[in-house]
Amino acid sequence: MAGRLVRSVPDCTSDLAGFQQVLAETVRWCAFKVTQKSLETCLRTPYILPNPLVVSNRFNAMKRVASNRQHLLMSVKGALDSDAKPDHGILQGGRLLIFFPDGTLSDGAAEASSHGYFDGENGPPWDTWVGVFSDEPMPRDTGNDYLISWVPPIFFDMVEAGLRDSPESCIQWLDQTDLSMAQRLKGLR
Q: Would residue 106 be called left, alpha or beta, if left means φ above 0 and alpha means ψ between -120 and 50 degrees?
């Protein structure tokens, strides 16, 4: 049973417009950044770097990521205009992933298995972050907060390896959960 959404960045308490805007910006930015040469680092832009989710105010960290990414998008707008693929939907073939920062053992298992897609805390690259959410009550012992990130299709195998080898299940595909945002985003493609 899904909990009730009590807080989110972007604000999704009344509608999904903010989420859809940040998701679209995330998809555009990541499509611009993905390179086959450096899959481990291409989605960790230093300018976007937030404070770690496991020790900081997660909502402020997400605001910083979204703001910095939006600023960078505006600076490369001309380079991105031709990249749109409207026939692939808002997810552009990607998937949404969740990370429970309070549920991580910080053991590095997902980092090793995913060849660096996940960090040592089991978090996804910050360029892919879409939002931070808090549900109450949560049906598991993971804390109330979770991060949603967008995974480009080229990373699916790396992410699957990380999910498989993460012993604490602090990272999962959003569509395989019963979280409030999973319910709200059903049918999003």
A: left
